[in-house]
């Protein structure tokens, strides 16, 4: 590129490292001052050089082996033996107590259904079951207070679940297998300004009836001929409290025979279970020819 004037003209060579300046005073040359790039691994001004390897092996970070309460609720514990296995129910009971909520744990591992096995603390208390709301649902009996004056023994909705592998066994055989766990969760009945004093029903968009409010208790029944050999039918019954969900006990002792077992023995339709109230169970019995 050329720039012309009255006294001088200048040739600028932009592609090279030397600039020639021609004027009245002659020719001057100068070398362009260039700064070589920093060598590899050399820090530029104002930058901190990266650490150089020392040749010594760096310690590998390992993940803590302690399981948090959330992990205890979400992940089945690894198979162990001896004293370590005995501590697992205590860990889960402690985790449930800390969380204040029923633990949610899936009953499938790698796509395969695995049984939930009732767990007990060393003092014999049953650890609160896990993931029961994902178990097969069989029915919801209801006996409102207003229809059982002055008060019903069990005025709540009874949401009843059966442990999945016990359910599969019943579907095939019509029998509750050894180790069957049945859970009953109680739910309060809604009461509002439309409550009918004669029967306790309320009025909603779908009509007059009974509608669920909050969780209000949790109970379980376990069939175990070895642990409960002296219980009628080898069934034992447990209550984790008739309390709000956040106050469910993490573990509880077996109830006395006269509080639950005696009533089931006298009134239940089949094997200490009130099968007469659950059409899904009656239908399965018909299918296997045991009705």
Automatic annotation (TrEMBL):
PROSITE patterns: PROKAR_LIPOPROTEIN. Keywords: Signal. Residues 62-74 have a biased composition (Polar residues). It comes from Methylobacterium hispanicum. Residues 29-111 are annotated as: Disordered. It comes from the Bacteria. Residues 1-32 form the signal peptide. Gene3D superfamilies: Cytochrome P460. This is Cytochrome P460 domain-containing protein. Residues 129-274 form the Cytochrome P460 domain. Residues 83-102 have a biased composition (Low complexity). InterPro entries: Cytochrome_P460, Cytochrome_P460_sp.
